Description:
The chain has 179 residues and is α+β, with helices and mostly antiparallel strands. It has a domain at 39-152: Lipocalin (Beta Barrel), CATH 2.40.128.270. It has 2 helices and 9 strands; from the N terminus they run H-E-E-E-E-E-E-H-E-E-E. It has an 8-stranded antiparallel beta barrel with strand order 1-3-4-5-6-7-8-9. A hairpin with a 3-residue loop joins strand 3 (61-64) and strand 4 (68-72). The protein is globular. The protein starts with a helix and ends in a 37-residue tail after the last strand.
Amino acid sequence: xxxxxxxxxxxxxxxxxxxxxxxxxxxxxxxxxxxxxxxxxxxxxxxxxxxxxxxxxxxxxxxxxxxxxxxxxxxxxxxxxxxxxxxxxxxxxxxxxxxxxxxxxxxxxxxxxxxxxxxxxxxxxxxxxxxxxxxxxxxxxxxxxxxxxxxxxxxxxxxxxxxxxxxxxxxxxxxxxxx
Length: 179
């Protein structure tokens, strides 16, 4: 009887372990659908190790659609974001390289992109998306409108966007250079 009892207990424990594994994971979402970062956002407040980043009317956007990216005060950018809500790994941040008017927009852009790339966590706080990292905090409000101009659509990192800065290359014929 001892021999039959041991395999039966082992089988019951294995089934229980599998059942509990199916229940583990992020709470809230539908079964089989992992929670991911979504939506279109406009930067409301930002800070880095140097302090608050004065946006001074510069528009910074972030969208999680087919690609992740937006407009960083002047240039379009895209990135690879893995994870979230919760821990995130942001890598492969690329941007177009146009001169910005006014020139202060380039400072906002540079500081924003550095803070964005350094972000290690993303959480929703009410109607806000907050990205944080060592000495950085980026607070985004939901974009008021889901329709956007071509310069605000996140670019595909595999599609080169050239031609706006006079560079030669495979320009996307449908891309409209921001004015």
